[in-house]
Amino acid sequence: SSKCPRCRLKHVTLRGRLFKYQDCKLEAHRDGVGAVNIGLAQGAAFPGEVINGAVACPLEVS
Fold first, then answer.
1. Which residues contact 23 (CB under 8 A, 6 or more apart)?
2. Which of the chain's termini has less CB crowding within 10 Å, N or C?
3. Residue 18 confidence (pLDDT) above 60
4. 34, 19 in Cβ contact below 8 A?
């Protein structure tokens, strides 16, 4: 997702799994951003700050 859940604009820089929104300075995991944007599209109300900390790093499997 490239739309910021906080400011709703699409000015984004992608760095691996991290999105950085240039206008409002939100930095968040891209999967979390996508999940929040799906919720917002369905009428849910989420503050943009809920994204960080909501997505765990995958465990390394050998």
1. 4, 7, 9, 11
2. C
3. yes
4. no
User: How far is Cα of residue 41 from the mean position of the Cα atoms in its chain?
Assistant: 14
Residue 21 exposed, middle or buried by CB count within 10 Å (0-12, 13-18, 19+):
buried
Q: What is the pLDDT of residue 62?
A: 54
Q: What is the pLDDT of residue 46?
A: 65
Pairwise CA distance, residues 26 & 22, whole Å: 8
Inter-residue contact 30 to 22 (CB < 8 Å): no
Q: Which residues pair with 29 in a beta bridge?
A: 18
**Alpha-carbon radius of gyration of the chain:** 12
Q: What is the average pLDDT across 8-27? A: 77
